[in-house]
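User: Before I run my own analysis I want an independent prediction to cross-check against. Here's the chain; please return only the structure tokens and, at the end, one sentence I can use as a sanity check.
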Amino acid sequence: MPTVRWTRLQPDRRSAPSGARSVRHRGGIVSAVLIAVGGVSPAVAQNPPRGAVTVDARVSQTAVRPGDLVTIAVRLTHASGFHTWPHEPVVPEAFEGVNPIPTEIALADAPPGTELVEVVWPQPQPVTVHYGGAPTALLSYTGSALIGVRLRLPRDMPEGRATVVLTVRFQACDARLCYRPQRVETAVRFRVGSGFDAAGRADFRLPRRSHFTEGGSDDLGFAR
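Assistant: Structure tokens:
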């Protein structure tokens, strides 16, 4: 099986705005679906504009063997002026009390026995928002952000065609407000067979960069 190289990236606290605090999501359901903080109220109870954030995915190999480790690259493409909260939000001090809704990925459907091994999150980038009137730097996913998902297929998986469906949960925001959180499903398909070898499968690697701006090259074969 081809080697999969990974670069584990965490939010860069050194680039966080002064006085920012890190908020770790512990897997529970976030009770507040919209942000609302005292005099800062950047939330609206409506869906984001069409195309604000789109989701697609690519699989590392289109032909695999039972028991293989499969890599999926999930891409969040943000329209100009839009961003999403990262997986581990860093809330500026000016927004104290904000209940951010982190970006999350879950395995929605897969062959029985498939294991979600690891999710590698991209590096958030600073954007400028005006939630309280004054411009404030906020670490976010923006442009084209790649998320790496590693799955282990069951060793007794039958041969044939297989589909894996992932659910991506995120909250789209612009410079002045955040919209209703969204759940989007994206699917990848591949063939399973015991006779496949490394020569017959793609050598896929997530690049060392994990964040790409619009118009850049992500080297993953995504259609532009």
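Sanity check: The two ends are 29 Å apart (CA to CA).
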